[in-house]
Amino acid sequence: MTGQSEPRRLRLLSYNIQSGLTTRNYSQYLTRSWKHLVPVPSRMTNLDGIARILADYDIVGLQEVDAGSLRSGFVNQVKYLADSAGFKHVFDQANRKIGMISQHGNALLSRFRPTAITEHKLPGLIPGRGVLEVRFGGGADALHVLISHMALGRRGRLRQIEFLVELVRDCRHMILMGDLNCGSDSPEMAALLSAARLREPGPGLFTFPSWQPDRQLDHILVSPSIAVERVEVLHHAYSDHLPIAMDVRLPKGLRLRAKGS
């Protein structure tokens, strides 16, 4: 693509990377909990593997990524992945900071230059959840991409859905992706799809736990104006979640700044 050409297709990926830690079974959440507090060599090996996956995509949403703390060896994982996978436009949102130990948050990596970036804190009894809103283009035909990691409890998720619905009320073209901590058939997902005028093209694609997936916690939701050509779960166990990928076709009136601009 050159100049202000119109990218009609986008390759999307959403991935909860668990700060670069691999989990093989539920017992490891207890027996290897110490790895969430200190740097371990396997993190960098996993990040390299994750970067190879990301290199095939145009817009990537990450959750549970560390922006540079003790546990990551003071490596900004967002920047490391962006540099390794060749992304020029990178934005992170640190939602839960525990001193020097961790900086837990969301991130977006893009091959297209955004017009605006906004960080929002999600409501909840326990602070530390957020949504990163990135806009491409302007006016009614702007594309709004939101990256979110929602609460574990249903009551908290319903409050957060109310917040998201209000946030996107006037958006015509939207992509919402992330770890929403609920399944396709849950009441909160039904409420979100209906109130935000979104659709889920790939219901029932299990992403958690990565070693034996039987739940879909990770989603890519799109507006009716965005045509979906393919959606799948990628079986790369660098985290306790599996990444979900989607190829979409944008509507004719929607323009993004060309790659590398």
Can you characterise this structure?
The chain has 261 residues and is α+β, with helices and mostly antiparallel strands. Helix content is 19%, strand content 31%. The longest helix is centred in the first third of the chain and has 14 residues, at 41-54. It is globular. The model has no long low-confidence stretch (mean pLDDT 88).
In short:
The protein has 261 residues and is an alpha+beta fold. It has five helices and eleven strands, in the order βααβαβββββαβαβββ.
DSSP helical segment count: 5
Using only CA atoms, what is the Rg? 17 Å
Mean pLDDT: 88
**Percent of sequence in beta strands:** 25-35%
Please identify the structural class as seen in this structure.
alpha+beta
- Poorly predicted regions: none
Distance between the termini: 10 Å
Largest sheet: 6 strands, mixed
